[in-house]
TrEMBL record:
Signal peptide: none annotated. Residues 246-255 have a biased composition (Low complexity). Residues 53-74, 237-265 are annotated as: Disordered. Gene3D superfamilies: Acid Proteases (2.40.70.10). This is Ty3 transposon capsid-like protein domain-containing protein. InterPro entries: Peptidase_aspartic_dom_sf, RTL1-rel, Ty3_capsid. Residues 108-256 form the Ty3 transposon capsid-like protein domain.
C-alpha cells in the first residue's frame, strides 16, 4: 500500500496538472475575447461609414418630383431611429394638433428639412390627400418648390380655422367661468395659437382671468413665468377644494308658510260667566258640543280666559351680587361648562376636596397638599 507521503505527492501532481489546464483555458478565452472585440470594432466602423454614405447621398439628392411621378412610389428616404414610433395621420378637420405632433416627431427624429414635406404628405388620407395631389400639381405647373413652410401655410389655409376668430383677442379677454381645469385647458389652447406674446404678458393675462379667490392667494408670490403661475394656481385651487369638503353643511331652517287646510284659526274670548255656564251644562269650552272624555273640536280655536278682577304682575328683581372672577380648570381647557363632581376625601389625618371628571385625561394635585403628604 502507498504511504501517506506518496499520496500527498500524487495529489500535488494532480493539482499541478489541473492548474496548467486552467491556465491554458484562460489564455484561450483571452484570445477569443480579443478576436470578438476586434470583430465588433470593425463592424462598428463599417456601420458608421455606411450611415455617412447614406446621409451624404440623400442630402445631395435633388428633388425631381415636378418632372416624374416616381417620388410617391419609391422607398422613403427618411430612416426612422425607432421603428415603433408611429407618425400621425391626417384626413380632415382642424390641423392644429396634427401639425404640433408632426413637428415633435421631426424634432425628435432630427428629420432634414428636405424630407419633411414628402414624409408628411405620405401620411395624408382621404380629403387631405386629394388636396395634396391638387396642390402639388399646381406648384409643378408653375415650377415652384414646396418647402415645409409653404406646405404648412397651404395646409393651414385649406383646413385651418377661419380668420373670424381672433385668438389674440380671445386670449386677452379670457375669464374663469367654471373649474380651474377648464380654464387652464382653454388658456393653453389659445396660447398655442398665438405668437409674439412674452412671458410677462402671458402671466398677467393668466392671473387676470383667474377666479378672485385663486388670484388673490397667489398674487403675493409674483410668479415670473407661466409655468410657475399655473403651478401656484393649481395648489391654491386644491386648497380651496379641500376647505369646501371639510366645511360642515349647516342645515337651513325652512319655515312652513302653508296654511292649515281646515281654514284659519279663530280666537274666542270667554268670560268667567261663560266658563261657569259651560261647566254647569257640561259643554266644551271651545265649541258648544257636549264634552266627553276624548272629545275633539271640529274646528280648532284659540281661547282667551279673562278674570273678573285684574291683577298687576310685579316683577321681583333679585339683587345682583358681584363675584370675583376666578379661572377654573375647564375654562382653561376650553370647555363650555363644568363637568366635574366635587367630593370630600380623607387621606390619613388630612381632609381633601377632590374633583372627579370622567372625561379628563390628566390628574392634578395642589403643590401645598403634595408637600404635606
Amino acid at each position: 500500500m502507498a504511504s501517506n507521503k506518496e499520496r500527498i505527492e500524487q495529489l500535488e501532481a494532480g493539482i499541478g496538472s489541473i492548474h496548467d489546464n486552467v491556465s491554458c483555458i484562460e489564455m484561450g478565452m483571452a484570445d477569443k475575447f480579443q478576436q470578438l472585440e476586434t470583430t465588433l470594432h470593425c463592424l462598428m466602423e463599417t456601420v458608421s461609414i455606411s450611415r455617412e454614405e447614406v446621409v451624404g447621398s440623400t442630402g445631395g439628392r435633388r428633388r425631381d418630383s415636378h418632372h416624374s411621378g416616381r417620388a410617391e412610389n419609391s422607398t422613403p428616404m427618411f430612416q426612422s431611429k425607432f421603428a415603433k414610433l408611429e407618425f400621425p395621420r391626417f384626413a380632415a378637420g382642424d390641423p392644429t394638433m396634427w401639425l404640433t405632433k408632426v413637428k415633435q416627431f421631426f424634432d425628435y427624429q432630427e428629420t432634414p428639412g428636405t424630407q419633411k414635406v414628402q414624409y408628411a404628405a405620405y401620411h395624408l388620407e382621404d380629403e387631405a390627400n386629394e388636396w395634396w395631389q391638387a396642390t402639388k400639381r399646381a406648384y409643378a405647373e408653375e415650377e415652384a418648390e414646396i418647402t415645409w413652410e409653404v406646405f404648412e401655410e397651404e395646409l393651414w389655409a385649406r383646413f385651418g380655422p377661419t380668420e373670424c376668430e381672433d385668438f389674440d383677442e380671445a386670449l386677452s379677454k379670457i375669464k374663469q367661468a367654471g373649474t380651474f381645469r377648464d380654464y387652464q385647458r382653454e388658456f393653453e389652447r389659445l396660447v398655442n395659437k398665438v405668437q409674439g406674446w412674452t412671458q410677462k404678458a402671458l402671466v398677467g393675462t393668466f392671473m387676470g382671468g383667474l377666479h378672485p379667490a385663486i388670484a388673490d392667494g397667489i398674487r403675493m408670490f409674483r410668479p415670473k413665468s407661466l409655468k410657475e403661475a399655473i403651478s401656484l394656481a393649481r395648489m391654491k385651487d386644491e386648497q380651496l377644494q379641500r376647505q369646501r369638503r371639510t366645511q360642515p353643511n349647516t342645515p337651513q331652517i325652512q319655515r312652513n308658510t302653508q296654511q292649515n287646510s281646515k281654514g284659519p284659526l279663530t280666537t274666542k274670548r270667554l268670560s268667567w260667566e261663560e266658563i261657569r255656564k259651560k261647566r254647569s251644562l257640561g259643554l266644551c269650552f271651545s265649541c258648544d258640543e257636549r264634552y266627553t272624555p276624548g272629545h275633539k273640536c271640529r274646528q280648532p280655536q284659540l281661547l282667551l280666559m279673562e278674570g273678573e278682577s285684574g291683577w298687576e304682575s310685579s316683577e321681583m328683581e333679585e339683587p345682583l351680587v358681584e363675584q370675583e372672577p376666578e379661572i377654573s380648570l375647564y375654562a382653561l381647557a376650553g370647555w363650555s361648562e363644568s363637568r366635574t363632581m366635587r367630593i370630600y376625601a380623607q387621606i390619613g389625618q388630612h381632609q381633601l376636596v377632590a374633583l372627579i371628571d370622567s372625561g379628563s385625561t390628566h390628574n392634578f394635585i395642589s403643590e401645598k397638599m403634595a408637600t404635606m403628604l
